[in-house]
Amino acid sequence: MNKENIIIANGRRVEARVPCSLEEFLKSQALLPRSVVVEHNGEAVAPSEFASRPLAAGDRLEIVKIVAGG
Length: 70
Hints:
It is a single chain. It is built from one helix and seven strands; from the N terminus they run E-E-E-H-E-E-E-E. The mean pLDDT is 94. It has one helix at residues 22-28; strands at 6-9, 12-15, 20-21, 36-40, 43-45, 54-55, 60-65. It is mainly β and 70 residues long. 14% of the residues are buried. It has a five-stranded mixed sheet with strand order 2-1-7-4-5, with no helix packed on it. The chain has a two-stranded antiparallel ribbon with strand order 3-6.
């Protein structure tokens, strides 16, 4: 892995094509943007910002999948 292309997602090192948007990263990880809640470098991100939120190497994400149930 090239450390210049690494994002830390949920504590794991993930290779990514950076720079990219948060939405592009989520899709590259087979995650539907509308089915997750994301914290980027310690800041909660509104889903409406996913497409315009830039990611860079070394950024940290916490991603939680939303699961419906009852």
